[in-house]
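2024-03-11 09:14:02 DEBUG pipeline.ingest accepted 1 chain
2024-03-11 09:14:02 DEBUG pipeline.ingest length=178
2024-03-11 09:14:03 DEBUG pipeline.predict start
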Amino acid sequence: MEYFKKMRGTTQSPPRVGNAEVVWSWLGAFLGIALVGLVGAVFVDRLGQGLLIGSFGATAVLVYGAVRSPLAQPRNVLGGHVISAVIGVCAYQLFGDTVWLSAAVAVSTAIAAMHVTKTLHPPGGATALIAVIGGDSVHSLGYMYALLPVGFGAMVLLAVAVLVNNIPKNRRYPEFWF
């Protein structure tokens, strides 16, 4: 019975953020994703490789919408994505023929590695999964996937976060670098 009681939660939902916070979150996310997409379209896509990956959408939520969260800090964003990408590629290369196993190994090992390295970033789990299920365009990159699109795209999102999140007086980013 105690097991089920824990599922009720212990606190109420946090209050809604103010309109200014909504606007700054929207602006940061728009500029960050647009810049990654634009750089990809102008420079990277010509190489036959995309720069936008799905997990960057979740990173945008954190670095522009939850700027004070430990999960949104630069160490976590860059480290979490890159470590997870490498692990995802390893998992695919080891177990690629069995997608369910490769995916499970990639995500679970990425979570463990992010914990150990103090780089926990939830979108990193998606980055590891994309390395497994991303198809030929991702698989052909091999370990380069960790650098481009993952590492470079994460750095662009971080640069925009540092610039935009420090414009309003009541916002500050990052809380810590390392």
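2024-03-11 09:14:41 DEBUG pipeline.report The radius of gyration is 17 Å.
2024-03-11 09:14:41 DEBUG pipeline.predict end
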